[in-house]
Amino acid sequence: xxxxxxxxxxxILTTPTGQHVQIDKVMTPIIRDLWRLEFATTGCCQxxxxxxxxxxxxxxxxxxxxxDAFIDYHRGWALLKLPIPDAMRFVEMLAxxxxxxxxxxxxxxxxxxxxxxxxxxDGLADSALLHFPAEQLPxxxxxxxxx
Length: 147
Description:
Blueprint: E1 10-14, E2 20-24, H1 28-36, E3 43-45, H2 48-58, H3 68-74, E4 77-83, H4 84-95, H5 101-105, E5 114-116, E6 119-120, E7 123-124, E8 127-133, H6 137-145
């Protein structure tokens, strides 16, 4: 379980590997359907900016990230964290849909998604971070549920 304070209401879900994890309530149907579709996930958040601000406010020690500019930029953005192969397969699936195709194929436009892979001291991280407007969460949940 996470060591940072909980910010968003959450459900406890059992992962496909049997672990019990906290999932933001708004993300729960998306995560369940991603697992059903055999995508692995390593993290998620229904509003990264809000969560970062909340953790910063409640935490006794500094985060090491999450300054005002970070929080302002990420407010209203949801996050899915998937192993790189699953992230690529997921984006490919979304690219073939009328709802999300342009959002994942055309970066830096209103409503578009961002994908990045953090650099670590020994190379690239194992997981990709998919950021997208949180207002798209209901559409994403509907799309995944229909698959």
